[in-house]
Amino acid sequence: MSSTVVVGLDVGGTSTRAIAVTLDGERLGVGRAGGGNPTSHGAARAAGELLAALRQALADVDPDRVRAGAIGLAGAGRLLADPAGRTAFDDAWRAAGLRCPYAVHGDALVAYASGAASPAGTILVAGTGAIAARVHELRLDRIADGHGWLLGDIGSGFWLGHQAVRRLLAALDTGGDPDDLGRRVLTRLTGSTEVAARTRDTVDALVQAVTRRPPVELARLAPLVVDAAAAGDPAGAALIGQAGAHLAATVSRIRPAGDTTPLVLGGGLLTGDTPLADAVRAEARRRWPDAPLRLAGDGAAAAAWLAARDLPEVTDPTALHAPIVRPPA
Amino acid sequence: MSSTVVVGLDVGGTSTRAIAVTLDGERLGVGRAGGGNPTSHGAARAAGELLAALRQALADVDPDRVRAGAIGLAGAGRLLADPAGRTAFDDAWRAAGLRCPYAVHGDALVAYASGAASPAGTILVAGTGAIAARVHELRLDRIADGHGWLLGDIGSGFWLGHQAVRRLLAALDTGGDPDDLGRRVLTRLTGSTEVAARTRDTVDALVQAVTRRPPVELARLAPLVVDAAAAGDPAGAALIGQAGAHLAATVSRIRPAGDTTPLVLGGGLLTGDTPLADAVRAEARRRWPDAPLRLAGDGAAAAAWLAARDLPEVTDPTALHAPIVRPPA
């Protein structure tokens, strides 16, 4: 049994997760704190959440046993380019009692590694946004989409919510009654399924309900589309099918047809048992019939595995993947 | 020769225009002032611009000769619903020396009347945004789109600019070289046609160039698409064709196939001699082969005509349209 411990962190927009794990895969501690993305929250706050999660994970661990660490976060490149951000993270690392170095990886690489051990493959993440990345020698190589809600995120949760509202507005413009999906959107945004006698009043109310919130919150309507599709609504099913095709097309920008490396699916819209996950799987099987399809799992554990790979005593890093990461089936 | 004078105003986001005209169509004065849309600028400022334009138009006119007036403006319904806004406009009207009443019309109705005298028809306006409206008894009846850049404006200047940037980002994601339209967009947004050695750096620079400005400014890229299409670029031509089809589809939401009433085309993208105007005309001739296609013209004069219609001495208001409005051929 290994006495060597590695630490991994997965820093997301809404939560930060930390894990301390031995090279045998024994979990010595886990920690969870608030959102810590330095791009959206500022490096100082992000570092504070990082420290809180680290302290929980290390509560029962002698920090001197920790020999390597890694942090996965969105906008990793920007953190590394910003001396103040890097210093804030360094200070948090030392404040947790750690003396080993740590690496910083993009969240897409960590999501990939949470589902596959192969050094080459592809990750597709769809949640509020959407991004695909090609992984080469366990580094992010080429990227597709991830352009944000205004210019990209095609097939994402934002896209689904956006399309659902547009369809409803078009139906109201023509004077038609909203369909099942339309009624779900109408109820969420106006509190009622009722259309005003002067239809344009309902149209105006919908537009105002959306535009008085940050646009990205349209992603909150995505579950309505997923639910409508799951309930057999044809409009919901059509939008889900389009989103699946869009996401597969995004992957195709960076992945040749017939590629046989693993394709890892991550993000809230693809890791659950949802119609969109089914749609993406179907598209993927058609374009890459011989590629293993994997689900992203525990990002913090994947970061710990990425850290462990570089230790001198690790001669077969791939063999450590299953015990440390325990990827989903 | 009629001694009766009517006053018309066209209040737009970037300029306010006023005209004083006799029932014979003699132009006694015109005025121009800054943008006066009360929704975007506040009612007090809008009323100030209104007064400035009115005073110029009435410089050589005895205000007692003015027997009727009308104001066309976007968000007319909101102005009428807001007592403070209505009071500000009333005060400006009286400050110009006018004692007759005035009517307030939506800008879409005034745009329609600037191109057609028939009491029933359709107006399609495409500029930064896009909206279509059915006119019935010279009132706005049903409306399609006009939902703003986030949720609508399909086929508008915003839409063209947005699509042009998306196409460029997709091309860069795949590792391809930008085409003619892509190079135009790249140059406008980054100052150079050069793609960085690490393509993602150019992608990030483009996304940042767009997202640090208000989204609606994507409409400023529309002329690049129009120019590319006019120069024979296939991508530009394809986008223009799609925009034309989208705009015709918007009209179809409120106008039955085969309708023979006039269809008036307004807005900067449709009143010039542009490929988009050609595309919309082609779509319109296909869907409504027997409908007269007209161009929107002088909105202030059209407002004056709408005002004149209700005067007791006017027995044939349609006959006044040509002399007062002088619609484009």
In short:
2 copies of one chain form a homodimer. Chain A has 329 residues and is an alpha/beta fold.
Task: Note down, in words, how this protein is organized.
The structure is a homodimer of 329-residue chains. By secondary structure, the first copy, chain A, is α/β, with parallel strands linked by helices. Helix content of chain A is 47%, strand content 19%. In chain A, the strands form two sheets. A five-stranded mixed beta sheet of chain A has the order 3-2-1-4-5. Chain A has a five-stranded mixed beta sheet with strand order 8-7-6-9-10, with helices on both faces. In chain A, helix 7 (157-174) packs across helix 11 and helix 8 packs antiparallel against helix 10. Chain A is globular and about 70 Å long. The A-B interface holds A 142-145, 147-148, 150-152, 162, 165-166, 169-170, 173-175, 199-200, 203, 206-207, 210-211, 215, 250, 253-254 and B 142-145, 147-148, 150-152, 162, 165-166, 169-170, 173-175, 199-200, 203, 206-207, 210-211, 215, 250, 253-254.
| Annotation, overall tally of beta strands of chain A | 10
Global geometry of chain A: globular
Give the N-to-C terminal Cα separation of chain A.
25 Å
Which parts of chain A are unreliable, with pLDDT below 50 for 5 consecutive residues or more? none
- The tally of helices of chain A reads 15
* Class by alpha and beta content of chain A: alpha/beta
Strand order of the largest sheet of chain A: 3-2-1-4-5
Described by strand count, sense and barrel closure, the largest sheet of chain A is: 5 strands, mixed
Radius of gyration of chain A, in angstroms, nearest whole number: 22 Å
What fold name stands as the CATH topology of the largest domain in chain A?
Nucleotidyltransferase, domain 5
Could you give the order of the helices and strands of chain A?
A: EEEHHEHHEHEEEHHHHHHEHHEHH
Quaternary state, please? homodimer
Query: What is the level 1 CATH name of the largest domain in chain A?
Result: Alpha Beta
CATH level-4 homologous superfamily of the largest domain in chain A = ATPase, nucleotide binding domain
Integer count of domains of chain A: 2
Please give the most extensive interface between any two protein chains, plus how many residues each contributes.
A-B, 28 and 28 residues
